[in-house]
Structure formats: structure tokens, C-alpha cells
Design goal:
With 159 residues, this protein is an alpha/beta fold. Helices cover 43% and strands 13% of the residues. The protein has a single domain, classed as Rossmann fold (3-Layer(aba) Sandwich). The protein has a four-stranded parallel sheet with strand order 2-1-3-4. Helix 1 crosses helix 5 and helix 2 packs across helix 5. Keywords: Hydrolase, Protein phosphatase.
Length: 159
Amino acid sequence: MRVLFVCLGNICRSPTAEGVFRRELESAGLAHRVEVDSCGIGDWHVGNPPDPRSAEAARRRGIDLSEVRARQLSAEDFHRFDYLLAMDHDNLAALRQQCPEACQAHIGLFLDFAGQVDRPVPDPYYGGERGFEEVLDLIESASRGLVEDITRRLEGARH
């Protein structure tokens, strides 16, 4: 099972989702069964680490983002990943526009897994510290829901 988190530049929301989701997978005993990555729609930050404010907010919650480096969405991602999860409606529209017809992946908004259907993860880039904390709260909630969904899928595949 493979999960890809997608935002605009891959320096705030999607790397945070990658780090939080890895922790949730470890807690659920699924880290060895699920591959996790993140990327951006744009190429502005390729090769850069996450925004220092995102990294610091995550670190305060015990999540290390130091190994994450920004990359841009590629055509191969649509075939490689089972879930491509957008942080907002613009990211989702870009995913749908670039998605090849043969793609079998689940493409949707990440917060759908938090029971907050059609709600975006707000971009904290131009805001203050509280925005980064809000993003973490939302991502933690959606990560738990995604773990539940993947657990059901993995158990269903065994039966």
C-alpha cells in the first residue's frame, strides 16, 4: 500500500502529513506495510527541506521532518501510489487534471478521512504560528481516519 500527500510546494502541509502519518502507521503496527511520500504540484522548492515553522511545530509534537525534501508530482506517481491525497481544492483539481485515464488510485481530499468532507487543510505559509498548529491538529485527525481505512483494505485483501 502506498500513500502520497500533495500540496502546492511540498514544504508545509504535505511534508507535515507525511511525518504525522508515518507516526500513526508506527503506532498501528503498519509502518512495514505502507509506503509514504509527499510532493508538491509546483517545482519552486524542489530539493528543499520543509519550512522551518512546519518542522518546528512538528518537532514539538515529536515528529521529525529533517529527512523530508520537496519534490514535484510526476506522471509516475499516478501509477505508483494507491492514494493521492490533496491538501486543498486547487491541489485536487491539479491532480485530477494530470491524472491518466488508466489510473486506479484513490484521488481525493485528505481531510475526507477526518470526516470533514470537502474541507481543505489551510495553507499556513503566510500566517502565524497558530496556523501551523491548526494544520497539525487537522492532519493528526485525518491520519487516524486514513489508518482505519487502510487497515480495512489490508484486512479485506487477506480474506
